[in-house]
Every structure is written in C-alpha cells, then in structure tokens.
Amino acid sequence: MRSSMLAAAIALAVGSSVSFSAFAQSGISAEEIAALKAQIAALQAQVAELETRTEAQSDINIGTQEALDKMAAENPKVETKGGIKVTSPDKNFEVQIGGRIHFDTYAFDNDLVDPTGTTEFRRARLTFAGKAYGWAYKLENDFAAGGGLEGFRDVFIATEAFGGKVTIGQFKPFRAMEELTSSNEITMLERPFITASGLFAGRQFRQGVGYHRGNDNYTFGVAAFNTRDAAGPRNEGVGASARLTYAPINTPESTLHFGISASTENANQGSPDVRAAVAYAGRRGPSQTIATTTGGSGDSVDHVGLEAAGAFGPLYFQSEYAMATFGAPLDGDQDIRTFYVMGSWMLTGEHKPYKAAAGVFGSPKVGENGAWELTARYDTIENEDVAGLEVASTTLGVNYYVNPNVRFMFNYIRGDNDFTGDNTSQYALRAQLAF
C-alpha cells in the first residue's frame, strides 16, 4: 500500500499524465488521492516561498557587498600588524607609526676613575614613515636626546630612481655594518668602536643626498653630505661615503657576508672638531679621546673599513676592521686602527636572518616561548702615532627575546685603557620595546 501511495505521489509531483481512474484501479481511494494532491500543493507552496526568500537574501547579500566595496573605496585602510599603518583609499598616501623605548640601568666596578651608576632612557623614539604620491618619507625624533632639533634622527624624503633609491635629508652615511644595523637589533647594548660609538663619534647622522640599491646578494650605497646634523652649527664642511657588500652564500639557514666601506670628511669653515672618542667601559663610563681634527682647519678625516659576518643555524659571527687618518696641520696626521670580533649563540635554536637589501643582520624570529642568546665581543682601538694610546673592551652578555617586540639585555663590559692604566668595568641591563 505504501509503495503504491509513494508511486502516486511521485507521479503527481512530476506532472504525470496518469489518470485518476488508473489510481482507482490500483486500489487507492479518491480521498487518499485528494490528500496526496493537497500535500503536494503544500510542498510546492513551501518551495515557492523558499525560492522567494533565497532571491531576496541574494539581493541583500549583493547590496551588502556593494556597500562594503563602497566603504573600502571611500575610507582609509587601517592595519595594526607590527605597528599602526593607515593607507588612503586611492593608495596615494600612507603613514606608519612606530617607536622604541630602551631603558637602561648601569652599575660600575670602579678602578682609577669613579663614574656614577645610574638609570636612563637610552632611546625613546617616535617614528612616522610612509609614502606620498610615490615618494617615501621618514620623520623620527628621539625624545631621550631632546624634543627639538637635537632629537632628530632619520628625517628625509626618498624616491625610486636609477634602479635603486635616492634619499634627501638627514640619514646615516653608508659606512660600517654595525653602524647601519638598527639599535633595535644590535647584539650588544652599545655598538663597537668602529661606529659612532668611537671612530665616528658625534657623527652618526649627516645631512645630504644618498643613493642605494641591492638585491639578494649585494648592496651598494653612496652619499654626499654636509658635516652637520639638524642641531649642529651651519658650516662649509663636506663629506662623502660609500659601501659595497656581497653575500656569496645566502639561504634561509646560512649566510656569509663581506663588505667594504670608505668615507672622507673635510673640516672646512665653521665645522666642529672631528673626533674619535670611546667610552671603553660602557655608556656613562670613562671616555678616552683617540684623535682629533680641529674644526675649521680644512683638514680631512679619511677612513676605509672591511666587514665579514655570517649566520649558520643558531651560530652568528661579525667582525669589522678599519683604518683612519685624522689630519692635523701642526703635529702631523694621526693614523687610527680599530677592529672588533663578535659572536652569538641562540640557545633556543633560532637563526639570525639576513636583511639582504640593507646588507645587515636582523633579530631572530621569536616563538611563543621566547628566545635566549649568549653574546661575546672583543673590541679595540689604537692611535699608532701616540705611544700607548690604545684602549680595549671585552663584553659578555645574554639576551632574552620575550616576543617579537620585547627584549631584555644584560652586558658585562671589562674596560682596559693602556694609556691611563684604568680597568673600570660595567654591569648594564636594558628593557626594550619596539614596534
């Protein structure tokens, strides 16, 4: 009976031409056929209603998507990965907000000198960077150095040209690998003597024009600049620098890097003194002047430096050697020699990535459980024309990367000043947040 009723329902549902009399012959009553017809009619009504609802919902979905597309076309795009980035609807304007806080604590084991242990904000920077009609810009102020011109760091505009990037404004000249490494990613609390922490003391940022290009294996940069920064006095001093790097090995787990750089700075009218001076027992510790070229003398400071670095799995090394000549009209030129050797071991197995476009190494990729790094460096600088004028420092440290934005650093620095006989040491701790 059920199979006969099912057959009848199917036949009626598909518009079968089976007649009422045929169903009657099969033993199905007229009442049952009428009930089946009524059920089928109800089902057809429900299907029609569902189709109407589906069409209406499709119209709503299309309208919603059109509204979303219109909003996207009329409103800025906001991204928060690694910082705050806002892009205009037409993509002609872009701004990204970043910053860094480096809070340091210093304690000294005094010898012949008596520096004061202290705390300080080593850096407290706010950075605005982005694009405007294809031109890049960057405006960065370090409030730890001051809220005015003295706090200016990178302040420039730039554009793509001649297969690379042309930069105009205030920036770092292309010289010394560790000098060009971000302070958020340097291995120790302070850079070695071959940088603005020694050989280029007080001359980290210059005003001028630069050109830079690179790919996965090489970089080349050249700059011409005035020997001042935003807070320095107006002067006629000029300088130039160039740097070339090559990485014959550059894979995700292994990198070998070589580089060479050179620079010249002429202390023309109005120029400040050009000095090489080092804090050999850490920042805020005792300082030793190595050489000076008198400002406004017209004499030059010339430098040539070599670089070698590599990262192989969790192991990393970096070394630079430089020779410089400081012009001195009365006492004769003075030749300076400086080098350092630095290494680290990622105890938790991470790898320091190579930033091929800049020719420097960055911070390791940090997982959920953080990362630990052991570090060591030996650093020395010598004036070869003044007997005994040589200083050195040995640094041992450990870094704890809490996450990609937060890092804690500890350094023990043993200073050794052959010129004065001082052997002051420092214990230094840094809490760092960068975004």
Automatic annotation (TrEMBL):
Residues 1-24 form the signal peptide. Keywords: Coiled coil, Signal. Gene3D superfamilies: Porin. Residues 33-60 form a coiled coil. InterPro entries: Porin_dom_sf, Porin_O/P. This is Porin.
